[in-house]
Amino acid sequence: MTAVYYSQDGQASGIGKYKDRVTGTSTPGNASITISNMQPSDSGVYVCDVTNPPDFQGINQGLIVANVLVKPSKPYCSIRGTPEANHAISLSCFSAEGAPPPKYQWFKLEEDTIKPVNEQYNPTTGLLVIGNLTTFEKGHYQCIASNSLGNSSCEIDLTTGHSEAGIIVGALIGALLAAIIICLIVWFFMTKSKSKKGKAITKEMQPMTKTLQSSEYESVPAQETAPREVPLSPTEPELLAPNHEEAEGEEK
């Protein structure tokens, strides 16, 4: 509890942050006070405590609730998410001060006209959720925070976050990167296939080489199996076998 005002024997003074802001009445038996330059922080419960010694009988306190009404402060507008095509984003609007609590409304600015947005939003929190940015026309949007004392507004520009030029450039860069990746994949598999074919041909040539070598070895006769011709010496007399039939005829 914070002391605000003290009065005794005709002398009164404000206390703390209420100094020079509180004045009392000069009417005897009246403890009313007036607080000037009220601030939002002045809202709360105020207690009037009256003492009259030696009379302490009965109720000597009274309570009153004071609510300071404040116009909404200038709200803060912000974008949550990436403001690009096909991205879900939300627009936020919030006033730090306002009593009673302000309500929020969203509008789209088109030239000289203000149109309420078609998308659903929360008037208590000021949050506007956009499911798909392509269905939400680009442009300027305005949020108005209002209560019984007045209103304040802020604006958001969604024309630069998702321009067509940016979308086209992004698409071209993505297509170029995809083409480079595809070329690298094709080159890798072609190189790998050629390497496998080279190894297969080498393996096939090895048994053929061995077969040719073995066939060459078989076609050349060994020295042991080669035929030998022994020439007859011209000086050796030719031995003739005896003719037994002629000898028998002569004896007869």
From TrEMBL:
One BP term from GO: epithelial cell morphogenesis
Residue numbers spanned by region Disordered: 201-252
Tagged with keyword Transferase: no
Q: How does the record classify its membrane topology?
A: Single-pass type I membrane protein
Highest taxon, organism lineage = Eukaryota
The record's annotation in InterPro entries points to:
Ig-like_dom, Ig-like_dom_sf, Ig-like_fold, Ig_sub, Ig_sub2, Ig_V-set, VSIG1
Q: Where is the composition biased (Polar residues)?
A: 208-217
Q: Name one Pfam family in it.
A: V-set
Sorted alphabetically, the keyword list is:
Disulfide bond, Immunoglobulin domain, Membrane, Repeat, Signal, Transmembrane, Transmembrane helix
State what protein this is by name: V-set and immunoglobulin domain-containing protein 1
Origin organism is Monodelphis domestica (Gray short-tailed opossum)
